[in-house]
Design goal:
Strand order of the largest sheet of chain B: 1-2-3
Shape of chain A: globular
Number of helices of chain B: 5
Helix content of chain B: 40-55%
CATH architecture of the largest domain in chain A: 3-Layer(aba) Sandwich
Largest sheet of chain B: 3 strands, antiparallel
Oligomer: heterodimer
Number of strands of chain A: 17
Radius of gyration of chain A: 22 Å
Strand content of chain B: 5-15%
Shape of chain B: globular
Largest sheet of chain A: 7 strands, mixed
Distance between the termini of chain B: 45 Å
Distance between the termini of chain A: 49 Å
């Protein structure tokens, strides 16, 4: 799609009407007046459009049945809808086949699956796992557990002052002991969009596979696993307009085929005896037990919804809005924004003077503005930044410049309120 | 309820000028953290020959967590371990809404934290120091904890 056309044709007011929750108001604490909700916590989870909610309800109302088991009408329809969602997901991220799409509970489970099923078979004592200093706990702890179990070591690509990765360090960090590289595509704190393609190229030059944590990228920027040539890529449905409880692990078919199962149970087997079993083929080998069928169907609807708007259009709009929000934030006295990568997503972490982010978020909430305050599941990064916590505003394609303006007004109010103490 | 009810002047005053607060860098003790936000507090607990508790804290946190810690040290100082444990139990349960909020009126300035009960997430801020103290008293003032790796 032509970028200019995408911008011109983007109608945020129409998009907002798709999201029932954006029509609700919240009571302003103090005055008791009703103010429209301003939801700026999209990096934590996105809101859901009517189209997704209808798909979930529609499944339960018309075709609720277990998948891949029943030969009756409902089972057949549910299975078809479930597998159509898998195909829609595969197509949306450029996978070669739906067999490369494993449904999970979310990004966290996808990474744990790889650390467990791939890692345990391939990582040995003294081996190294290369991560970055900006990982979410979900792309750190699974590797810590694996390293502790195997006697392996974690290495980290350092971040620079501006919140970008020091890619020059990669060559020396990739050693003959490196078994896997796991990196985030977009930082959930700094907003940095990492040049994962360069990292993948460097790793592949040494035959090292790469896992991409795409929790913050797939919902916001066009992602093509073929172009990236990543080996594994994990993301969550709930951050991209789908329900909670459903996520995706993409894996190259050849790698998935060689991997041992993650969990045992129904669906993941082909034949079972009392003392042994034969595994099903991917992706079913990794989907033990009844899956989140409604969630998967909701994810399929979310993928369709985002495709209709167009990921390039979403990216352009969010880029503009982020630029605007950053400019407005700069006007606030004593503001400190963490991360200034030129290539960035719609995540902005900040602090106002020495006011604790909890207190900032509380004042914003009293005006109906929802932001996050805390360590954003990235405590080592927080330590690196020299802060215990930050406030974080994360935008989505349904947010508006007017919402940014009102939030800035609330920030000024917070500054005023705590002027006497902080 | 308004912001002024939540952030009462007493709270802001303790936040501005926390009592019994000093750097404890050279003290070996576990740093207690609120896993939800990364706020951290370190306590120094001593019991003198008369069985009276002495307290100091070193913390990073929001207005609610710091003021609550400050007020806690004032309330608990000079009490016995048993008395301190009873106070912790009453404060924490009152903040969680398990017992009536009027209990807080008997705890002096801590009554100013009543408004926090309406904000479940902030209750964790208000009780961080108290949980830290409870754990230290329970373990004979020694740190404890599990970790990966």
């Amino acid at each position: 799609m032509d970028p200019v056309v995408a911008t011109l044709s983007y109608d945020v007011a129409a998009v907002r009407r798709d999201f029932p929750i954006l029509g609700r108001s919240v009571t302003v604490r103090g005055t008791g007046e009703a103010a429209p909700l301003i939801y700026l916590d999209n990096a934590a989870t996105s809101q859901k459009p009517r189209q997704v909610l209808d798909a979930v309800i529609g499944y339960y109302e018309r075709m609720n049945a277990n998948v891949h088991r029943a030969l009756h009408r409902l089972g057949e329809e549910a299975t078809t809808a479930f597998e159509e969602s898998r195909s829609a997901v595969a197509e949306s991220i450029g996978a070669r086949s739906p067999a490369e799409i494993v449904f999970t509970r979310g990004t966290t489970e996808g990474i744990n699956l790889i650390a467990s099923a791939w890692g345990r078979a391939n990582v040995r004592e003294g081996d190294e796992i290369l991560l970055t200093e900006m990982e979410h706990h979900s792309n750190l702890i699974p590797w810590q557990l694996l390293a502790a179990e195997k006697g392996a070591h974690l290495r980290f690509i350092p971040i620079r002052e501006d919140g970008t990765l020091d890619l020059d360090a990669i060559e020396s960090l990739l050693t003959e002991r490196t078994r896997i590289v796991a990196v985030t595509h977009v930082s959930n704190v700094l907003g940095t969009i990492n040049d994962v393609r360069s990292i993948i190229d460097a790793a592949h030059a040494r035959d090292i596979p790469v896992l991409v944590d795409a929790a913050q990228s797939v919902p916001h920027i066009p992602v093509d696993v073929g172009a990236l040539d990543c080996d594994f890529l994990a993301f969550s449905g709930h951050k991209m307009c789908a329900p909670t409880g459903i996520g995706v692990l993409y894996g190259k078919e050849s790698l998935l085929a060689d991997m041992r199962p993650y969990q045992g149970g129904g669906e993941m087997i082909r034949a079972v005896w009392y003392d042994r079993a034969e595994w099903n083929v991917p992706p079913y080998k990794f989907e033990a037990g009844t899956p989140d069928i409604a969630g998967a169907i909701g994810l399929g609807a979310a993928v369709d919804y985002l495709r209709r708007i167009g990921m390039p259009a979403i990216r352009l709009y969010e880029e503009d809005l982020t630029r605007y929000a950053l400019a407005r934030l700069e006007e606030v006295e004593d503001i400190r924004v963490y991360g200034s990568s030129p290539d960035r997503g719609a995540v902005i972490s900040f602090n106002v003077g020495s006011i604790h982010p909890h207190d900032v978020a509380q004042i914003l909430d009293s005006d109906g503005v929802a932001v996050r305050a805390g360590h954003h599941c990235a405590q080592p990064l927080m330590r690196k930044l020299g802060v215990a916590a930050t406030a974080r505003a994360s935008l989505s394609f349904y947010n508006t410049a007017e919402e940014v303006d009102r939030s800035i007004g609330s920030l000024e109010k917070a500054r005023e309120f705590f002027r006497r103490v902080a | 309820m308004s912001l002024d009810d939540l952030y009462q002047e007493i709270i802001l005053e303790h936040y501005r000028r926390p009592r019994n607060s000093r750097p404890l860098d050279d003290v070996v003790a576990r740093v207690h953290e609120n896993p939800a936000c990364g706020d951290a507090i370190k306590l120094l607990v001593e019991v003198d020959d008369n069985g009276q508790v002495g307290l100091a804290f070193d913390g990073k946190g929001c207005a609610i967590s710091i003021s609550s810690a400050s007020m806690m040290t004032e309330l608990v100082k000079g009490r016995t371990v048993g008395e301190a444990e009873a106070l912790i139990d009453r404060f924490v349960r009152a903040m969680r809404g398990e017992i009536p909020s009027e209990v807080l009126d008997e705890l002096g300035e801590l009554a100013s934290l009543k408004g926090v009960r309406k904000y479940p997430v902030r209750v964790k801020c208000a009780t961080l120091a108290w949980h830290a103290l409870a754990e230290m008293l329970r373990n004979g003032f020694r740190p404890s904890g599990n970790q990966v790796g």
